[in-house]
Design goal:
alpha/beta; eight-stranded mixed sheet; Rossmann fold; homodimer; N-(1-d-carboxylethyl)-l-norvaline Dehydrogenase, domain 2
Chain lengths: ~300, ~300
C-alpha cells in the first residue's frame, strides 16, 4: 500500500501516453486501458497495471483520467457498457483531458454525480512536446474541492495549471486557447508564403519578426520544424479541425460571432479534404501553398 | 566636430519621437523636423537642432530617417518641394521607418539613387513601448554596405535587428509582421468575448492560456491593459488598418491569397467607421463586443 491515490488513465494516444507515463514515473500507482494494446504494453513494462475495460480501471482507481479523440468516445467510455460509471464508487474523481462538446461533458457530469463522483474538465494545451516534458498548460473547470485533490497530479503533467471556475469553464478556456492557436498557425502560413513569393527569405523573415510584437509560440516552436521540412504532428490537423468545430458550436450557443475563427476553421477543414488530416496543425501552410501555387521550401 | 555621423529625423510622432530621443541620448548629433512644433521643441530642449524643412535636415545630416503616417507623406518629404532630395548629397543614407507601399518605396529609392543616396527600408515593430525602451524589432531591406553603416544607430533604437535582403524586403517583413499581429489582436478579442459570454472569467482564461501553445505578445502585453479598461494606443487602429491595406495590396501583387488576413482587415476597417480609429489596435475587441452585444468589463 502507498498513501498516494491510484490513478486510472484511459486513452494512451499522442498526448495520453506521455501524460500517463509522467504520472507513473512520479510514484503514483497507475492503471491503464487503451484500444490499441501496444501503448498499454509499453506502460506495463514501466510498472503500470493493465485493465480490460474502463469499468475495471474505475474499480481499481481513485482518480480516473480520460484522453480520447471526440465526444462519442468519452461518452461511451464514461457511460457505456463496461464504462467508468459501472466501476466507479462514491468519492472518486473523473478527470477528462479530452476536448469535447460542452453538452457531452454536462451529460457525463450529471450521470456520474448520481454516483457521487466529481467531474473535472481539464483541457490541456502544449502538444506532444508539452505532454512528454510535463509542461502542459491545464485549464480546469469543476468543484474546487476536487480540483485541490487532483492538483498534485496536475503538477506532474503540467507547468501552468489554472482553476477557471465551475464545470464547463475548462472547456471554454480550451475553446479560447484554440481560437488563438488556430489564428497563429494560419497567420504563420500566410506570412511565410507571402515572404516566399515576394522574394524575401521566409526563414530570415520569421527570425526577424519573432522578437517583436508578432512573437508567439507558433513562430518560436513550429517554424524550425517547417524549415526542416517536418510537418508531422505535434498536434494533428484533424484534431485542430475537430476542436474548432466545438469552438464554433460553443460560440453559436453563447451568441458570439467569431469572424476570424470561422475563416480559420474553413482552412483546417480543407486539410481534411486535401489528405493533410494527419499532418501537424502548422501544416495548414500547405493550404496557403495550394491557394498561392507556391512551395515554402522550393 | 564629433566622429559620429549627424542624424536627421523627420516625423516625431508616437514612434518617431522616442526613437529620435534615444539616438540623441546615445551621443549622436541630431537634427529634427516635424509638422507639429511641440515635439520639435521637446527634442531641442534635450540638445537636438531644429531644421525648417526636410531639405534643411538633409543638408545638415549624414543619415536621414523618416517616420511618417503613409505613402504620400513619405513621397512628399523625400521628393517634394523643400524635400530631402533637394538637400541630400552623395554618400548620404536615407532610412525610412514608415510602413508604406512598395511602389512608393521603389520610386523614392530610384530618385535618390540618382543623387548617389542609398536607401534602406527599415520597418519597425514593438509599439510605443518598444520605441521608448529602445527595444524595437527592426526589419531592414537595402544594400549591405548601407546597412552596416547604419547598424550602430539601429542598435540604439532596437533590440532585434535583421537585414533581410535587397531593397523592399524590409517592407515584406513588415507585412509578415502585421499579418501575425492582426491575427493575434483579433483572436484575442474573439476569445475574450467568448469567455465573457460563456461565463468564464476572461482574465483567468487569458492567464491560463498564455502559458501554453497560445502564448503570444498580444496576450502578454495587451490583456493587462484591456482589463485595466485602457484602450489607448500603443499602436493606433487606423495605422493597423492602413498597414493591412498595404499587406493586402502586396499580397495581391505577388499572387498570395490571404483568407484570414482579409477577414481581419475588414474588422480593423470597421474600427474606422465606428469611431475607434484612434484607439489601440487591441481595441478591435470592441468590434467583437458590438457583434456579440457584450462588454468585456461589465
Amino acid at each position: 500500500m502507498t498513501d498516494k491515490p491510484t490513478i486510472g488513465y484511459i486513452g494512451l494516444g499522442l498526448m495520453g501516453k506521455p501524460m500517463a507515463l509522467n504520472i507513473l514515473k512520479s510514484g503514483y500507482p497507475v492503471v491503464v486501458h487503451n484500444r490499441s494494446k501496444e501503448a498499454v504494453q509499453d506502460l506495463v513494462e514501466q510498472g503500470a497495471n493493465a485493465a480490460n475495460s474502463p469499468k475495471e480501471v474505475a474499480e481499481q482507481s481513485d482518480v480516473i483520467f480520460t484522453n480520447l479523440p471526440d465526444s462519442p468516445d468519452v461518452e461511451m467510455v464514461a457511460l457505456g457498457e463496461n464504462g467508468i460509471i459501472e466501476g466507479a464508487s462514491a468519492g472518486n474523481i473523473f478527470v477528462d483531458n479530452s476536448t469535447i462538446k460542452p453538452a457531452s461533458a454536462r451529460l457525463i457530469a450529471e450521470k456520474l454525480f448520481e454516483k457521487d463522483v466529481s467531474c473535472l474538465d481539464a483541457r490541456v494545451s502544449g502538444g506532444d512536446i508539452g505532454a512528454i516534458n510535463g509542461t502542459l498548460t491545464i485549464m480546469v473547470g469543476g468543484p474546487e474541492e476536487a480540483f485541490q485533490r487532483v492538483l498534485p497530479i496536475f503538477k506532474v503533467i503540467g507547468k501552468s495549471i489554472t482553476h477557471i471556475g465551475e464545470a464547463g469553464t475548462g472547456q471554454i478556456t480550451k475553446c479560447a486557447n484554440q481560437i488563438m492557436v488556430a489564428a497563429q498557425m494560419v497567420a504563420m502560413g500566410e506570412l511565410l508564403i507571402l515572404a516566399k513569393k515576394a522574394g524575401a527569405d521566409p526563414q530570415k523573415v520569421a527570425e526577424a519578426i519573432k522578437g517583436g510584437a508578432a512573437q508567439c509560440w507558433s513562430l518560436d516552436v513550429k517554424t524550425p520544424r517547417l524549415f526542416d521540412g517536418n510537418r508531422q504532428p505535434g498536434f494533428k490537423a484533424y484534431m485542430q479541425a475537430k476542436d474548432l468545430g466545438i469552438v464554433m458550436d460553443t460560440a453559436k450557443q453563447y451568441g458570439v460571432p467569431l469572424p476570424s475563427t470561422a475563416s480559420n476553421t474553413q482552412l483546417f477543414n480543407s486539410m481534411l479534404e486535401l489528405g493533410m488530416e494527419n499532418l501537424d496543425n502548422s501544416a495548414v501552410v500547405g493550404v496557403i501553398e495550394m491557394l498561392a501555387n507556391a512551395n515554402l521550401l522550393d
